[in-house]
Design a protein that fits this description.
By secondary structure, this protein is an alpha/beta fold. The chain is built from 12 helices and 11 strands.
Length: about 350
């Protein structure tokens, strides 16, 4: 077991319900081992600016049910520079921080790697409502966001039924359409459009037209924001081609708020405790992932390459440079993730009439 006297915990990137539960678990797990915890405010920017506080158990009391993050978050472009990194390392040394747990998305993990290779052991925990980190089956905040979307769409459907309307709802998910696919399936949307799966607009409009002819009065279409500049134009085309009054609704950042669901509280707590265990075992430069219902550790560099491979962001030269065994493992993760996404999408397409 590595020797630690004090660790830091921070949240970075977009806030997500469940981040507070992870902060709580990290803090109490470390304190139980006799290790002090510094709560770092404002993400990596706060780390550079020395914005932090020594946490006691009471500092995280009552936060498991709260949305957002009590540690706040901020953009930190300077952290990507050598000067910014030097500031962060100096602050860690000044405050006797031996390691860090960083909660956030892929940008957070790149920062964690930068700290790790400079002598500050760091472990990442995935926290983003979009569920767009390909190395893990689940990210903290996803379940809460989907339940928020479901509640709002159910309310929209009530007024659609009253006025015989169609409502095209744009949900968050810039790099992944998981929120759109699963919330669309759960709310009985007649069509779902996401950036990463081809969308047959003509077939969707015909489905709406046919359902209206059969007496259906309300129609919900869910579009992921990753299908850029699409939802509003599609709304107009639905009305023009079907004669059904159609409205566009962008749910926006309300999807990030709210009290975390049971799943996000439990998963965040498990990941937070697991991260501390791995840190104290001497592991660093890793991200905590959920794989096939198990909490596991994965090298951050490997995880980031998996994400790029899944999203088609690796060049042929970069792919060729990956050892065959490693590439095979990465491809297996990508194939499993794509298979699950397509299963959900096809289920929605079949059942949402």
């Amino acid at each position: 077991m590595a020797k630690f006297q004090r660790i830091g915990v921070l949240t970075s990137g977009g806030d997500a319900p469940g981040m507070n539960a992870a902060v709580r678990a990290v803090t109490r797990s470390a304190l139980l081992c006799g290790v002090e915890v510094m709560g770092i405010y404002g993400g990596y920017q706060g780390l550079m600016d020395d914005e932090m506080k020594l946490f006691h158990s009471s500092d995280v009391s009552g936060i498991i049910s709260r949305g957002g993050t009590i540690l706040y978050s901020a953009r930190a472009l300077e952290f990507k520079t050598e000067e910014g990194m030097a500031k962060a390392i100096a602050v860690c040394k000044k405050n006797h921080i031996d390691g860090i747990v960083a909660i956030g998305g892929d940008g957070t993990f790149r920062g964690a790697t930068d700290l790790s290779i400079r002598g500050i052991p760091t472990v990442g925990i995935p926290g983003t409502i979009d569920n767009d980190i390909s190395s893990t089956d689940y990210t903290i905040g996803f379940d809460t966001a989907m339940n928020t979307v479901i509640d709002l769409i159910d309310k929209l459907r009530d007024t659609c039924e009253s006025h015989a309307r169609c409502n095209v709802v744009e949900v968050m998910g810039r790099g992944a359409g998981d929120i759109a696919i699963q919330s669309g399936l759960a709310t009985g949307a007649i069509a779902i459009a996401v950036g990463e799966i081809p969308f047959d607009e003509e077939a969707a409009i015909e489905r709406i037209r046919s359902a209206r002819a059969n007496g259906k009065r309300n129609f919900i279409v869910v579009v992921a924001e990753g299908k850029e500049n699409y939802a509003e134009g599609f709304t107009k085309r639905i009305q023009e081609q079907t004669g059904i009054e159609s409205r566009f609704t962008r749910l926006g950042h309300v999807q990030r708020g709210g009290n975390p669901t049971l799943r996000d509280r439990v998963t965040a707590s498990m990941m937070g405790s697991f991260a501390v265990d791995k840190l104290f075992e001497g592991q660093s430069d890793i991200v905590v992932c959920e794989r096939n219902s198990r909490i596991v550790a994965m090298n951050i560099g490997f995880a980031l390459k998996v994400d790029k491979l899944f999203k088609g962001k690796l060049t042929p030269e970069e792919i060729a440079a990956i050892p065959p065994a490693e590439l095979s493992e990465m491809q297996k993760i990508c194939d499993e993730r794509q298979a699950k996404k397509m299963m959900l999408y096809n289920t929605a397409r079949i059942t949402c009439k």
